[in-house]
Amino acid sequence: MSNPIYLALDVPQLDAAKDLLGKVRGHIGGVKLGMEFFYAHGHHGVMEMVQASGLPIFLDLKLHDIPNTVAGAMQSIHVLEPAIVTVHASGGRAMMEDAKAAAGENCKVVAVTMLTSLDERDLARTGVAGTPHDHVMRLAELAESAGLDGIVCSGQEVGAVHKQWKHGFFVVPGLRPAGSATGDQKRTVTPRKARDDGASVLVIGRPISKAADPLAAAREIEATL
Ligand SMILES: O=C(O)c1cc(=O)[nH]c(=O)n1[C@@H]1O[C@H](COP(=O)(O)O)[C@@H](O)[C@H]1O
């Protein structure tokens, strides 16, 4: 099985991103570039990371707009040949259908369900009653019916979603090795637990990028898998 760890390169400086990538490249299976990186460096930066890493690129742009605009955005990133792109499930079924239709052939489109930085109280404040589990399951069903490849959810739900959606592709962020700082993440599990419960991709940022020794941190996490 290939390495499921995708390093979240949430770094605004290109040189710092390349430096970090160079250190841990042999211990990750892919690179996740999100808003922080993309808004600073755009297409050019992504191409540089493709060349520097030689690894699959996950473009985490969390698209959320009307169907026509999201489809246009998907077409605008075709040329970058991302392996994975995110949209928000709350954008609705038509938006997800059009995003998938506009995606490149080898690009997995996955829907963010409920951010791992939120808990049940936060959910209630957005007007959604019920548990994170119920909310994630509902949005997973919507994403599957819209023809998406999978979803993004926390490691606390991935086991249940995997049982319901056997061949789905599951991206799990909010991962924290035992004893590491949670920061702004609220629904955390260890990388090992997420993998055992059916995660296809393990997104890991600060536990590696902010470690005193990123290489040692990446190696340690890899060894737990
Ligand atoms: O879509 C994501 O990747 C994502 C969804 C989510 O619910 N929670 C979440 O943390 N993420 C991303 O996963 C990464 C987690 O980073 P760390 O908390 O530093 O490991 C960040 O790049 C987030 O943007």
Automatic annotation (TrEMBL):
<dbReference type="InterPro" id="IPR001754">
    <property type="entry name" value="OMPdeCOase_dom"/>
</dbReference>
<feature type="binding site">
    <location>
        <position position="205"/>
    </location>
    <ligand>
        <name>substrate</name>
    </ligand>
</feature>
<feature type="domain" description="Orotidine 5'-phosphate decarboxylase">
    <location>
        <begin position="4"/>
        <end position="221"/>
    </location>
</feature>
<keyword id="KW-0456">Lyase</keyword>
<comment type="function">
    <text>Catalyzes the decarboxylation of orotidine 5'-monophosphate (OMP) to uridine 5'-monophosphate (UMP).</text>
</comment>
<feature type="active site" description="For OMPdecase activity">
    <location>
        <position position="62"/>
    </location>
</feature>
<keyword id="KW-0210">Decarboxylase</keyword>
<dbReference type="GO" id="GO:0006207">
    <property type="term" value="P:'de novo' pyrimidine nucleobase biosynthetic process"/>
</dbReference>
<dbReference type="InterPro" id="IPR013785">
    <property type="entry name" value="Aldolase_TIM"/>
</dbReference>
<keyword id="KW-0665">Pyrimidine biosynthesis</keyword>
<feature type="binding site">
    <location>
        <position position="185"/>
    </location>
    <ligand>
        <name>substrate</name>
    </ligand>
</feature>
<comment type="similarity">
    <text>Belongs to the OMP decarboxylase family. Type 1 subfamily.</text>
</comment>
<feature type="binding site">
    <location>
        <position position="116"/>
    </location>
    <ligand>
        <name>substrate</name>
    </ligand>
</feature>
<dbReference type="InterPro" id="IPR014732">
    <property type="entry name" value="OMPdecase"/>
</dbReference>
<comment type="pathway">
    <text>Pyrimidine metabolism; UMP biosynthesis via de novo pathway; UMP from orotate: step 2/2.</text>
</comment>
<protein>
    <recommendedName>
        <fullName>Orotidine 5'-phosphate decarboxylase</fullName>
        <ecNumber>4.1.1.23</ecNumber>
    </recommendedName>
</protein>
<feature type="active site" description="For OMPdecase activity">
    <location>
        <position position="60"/>
    </location>
</feature>
<feature type="binding site">
    <location>
        <position position="206"/>
    </location>
    <ligand>
        <name>substrate</name>
    </ligand>
</feature>
<dbReference type="InterPro" id="IPR011060">
    <property type="entry name" value="RibuloseP-bd_barrel"/>
</dbReference>
<feature type="binding site">
    <location>
        <begin position="60"/>
        <end position="69"/>
    </location>
    <ligand>
        <name>substrate</name>
    </ligand>
</feature>
<dbReference type="GO" id="GO:0044205">
    <property type="term" value="P:'de novo' UMP biosynthetic process"/>
</dbReference>
<dbReference type="InterPro" id="IPR018089">
    <property type="entry name" value="OMPdecase_AS"/>
</dbReference>
<dbReference type="Pfam" id="PF00215">
    <property type="entry name" value="OMPdecase"/>
</dbReference>
<dbReference type="GO" id="GO:0004590">
    <property type="term" value="F:orotidine-5'-phosphate decarboxylase activity"/>
</dbReference>
<dbReference type="GO" id="GO:0005829">
    <property type="term" value="C:cytosol"/>
</dbReference>
<feature type="active site" description="Proton donor">
    <location>
        <position position="62"/>
    </location>
</feature>
<dbReference type="InterPro" id="IPR047596">
    <property type="entry name" value="OMPdecase_bac"/>
</dbReference>
<feature type="active site" description="For OMPdecase activity">
    <location>
        <position position="65"/>
    </location>
</feature>
<feature type="binding site">
    <location>
        <position position="10"/>
    </location>
    <ligand>
        <name>substrate</name>
    </ligand>
</feature>
<feature type="binding site">
    <location>
        <position position="32"/>
    </location>
    <ligand>
        <name>substrate</name>
    </ligand>
</feature>
<feature type="binding site">
    <location>
        <position position="176"/>
    </location>
    <ligand>
        <name>substrate</name>
    </ligand>
</feature>
<comment type="subunit">
    <text>Homodimer.</text>
</comment>
